[in-house]
Amino acid sequence: MAKLTYFSHAAWQINSGAHTILIDPFLNDNPTSPVKAEDVKADFIIITHAHGDHIGDAVEIAKKHNALVISNFEIVNWFGSQGVKAHPLHIGGGHDFPFGKAKLTQAFHGSSFPDGGYGGMPAGALITVEGKTVYHTGDTGLFGDMKLIGEMNPIDIALLPIGDNFTMGVDDAVKAVELLNPKTAIPMHYKTFDVIDADPNQFVERVKATGKNATVLDYGGSMEF
Ligand code: NI
Ligand code: MN
Question: Using CA atoms, how far apart are residues 34 and 163, in angstroms rounded to an integer?
Fold first, then answer.
């Protein structure tokens, strides 16, 4: 069994028993996170894009725990310049790591660094641990190839932004669940800031009304999968 933990916004942790994987660890400056960077450990850190609310505290955490950052080529080069070891992937490419597999998908969004530097293309990540696949879509708008991604990569858990304004809102995220057809969908990227004040329970009710499964993970909450 692996364990999935939500730290709020787009920040997640997957524990496989042997390995801890963090995704988009925006913690110290995140008003909704129940943990700070000093509270978490990591063997691997997956970064979906270069925006500050996704890079977060990855440099500090990676250096402290000698973690390997996994991201697109441009973001990996930047981490290298910060003295962090990192493995480059790019859209459509996957690689086997000690924990399982990570593969990047497209995401429709931006990916500049906080200083305006070029962060390559934004991505989502298909993360396979102990034979189960978690799809962290990153920050994205709805796109029709979610159907293709779901067909070719059976998804156990889909993590979907619902906050609107910068990403899909609830209506589009409900459609994303239909296209991806995951066993379970969990909302993310809401309420962190006033402008993304969406209701995760509304998302869950709407998904369930379509006959599919969804659940809310509280900030700091976990589930086994
Ligand atoms: Ni973003
Ligand atoms: Mn974001």
Answer: 19
Q: Quote the number of domains for the chain.
A: 1
Asked if 50 and 139 touch (Cβ cutoff 8 Å), the reply is no
3-state secondary structure of 114: coil
By the CB criterion, residues less than 5 angstroms from ion ligand 1 are 51, 139
Between the CA of 124 and the centroid of ligand 2 the distance, in Å, is 12
The token duo for 191 is 């309420």
Q: How far apart are the CA of 211 and the centre of ligand 1, in A? A: 30
Query: Any idea what the CATH number is for the domain that residue 141 is in?
Result: 3.60.15.10
Q: What are the tens digits of pLDDT across the range 97-129? A: 999 999 999 999 999 999 999 999 999 999 999
C-alpha to C-alpha distance for 48 and 65, rounded to whole angstroms: 20
Cα(208) to centroid(ligand 2), Å: 26
pLDDT band at 212 (very low <50, low <70, confident <90, very high): very high
Domain assignment of residue 126, given as a range: 3-224
Closest CA to 90 of 129, 52, 124: 124
